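Please, structure for the following, as tokens.
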Amino acid sequence: MGALIKSHPIDVAFVGIGENGHLAFNDPPADFETKEPYLVVSLDEACRRQQLGEGWFPRLEDVPKRAISMSIRQILDADEILCIVPDARKAQAVRDCLEAPVSPQHPASILQRHPGTTVYLDAPSAALLTKGKDQR
């Protein structure tokens, strides 16, 4: 799959920000340097609890500890990135990723460096943002 995706440009990547600031399961601290298009990533407990809280699994023990994810660099290779982030539980992560400096500790903060990123928030997920309040 990695070789196939390297030979075909990505027009649009659809991603989300997790409660812990992960970007497409790239949990903190995320690897911003790897050139591998896909990674087997370890899901930290916060990420696993989010999957439980969203109702994807009946018990924490049922949530996988690893997942296959597109790497940060591969996401950034997309021409456009659409990031959809609903829910008040993600408000702190949204603020950390959109208003704090870019850091592997806040993986989705890397989206600040991609000129083709559009972030869609609902009112609860945007509640802690301070920059541009007069523009909302």
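Strands lie at 12-15, 38-42, 66-70, 80-85, 117-121. The chain is about 25% helix and 20% strand.
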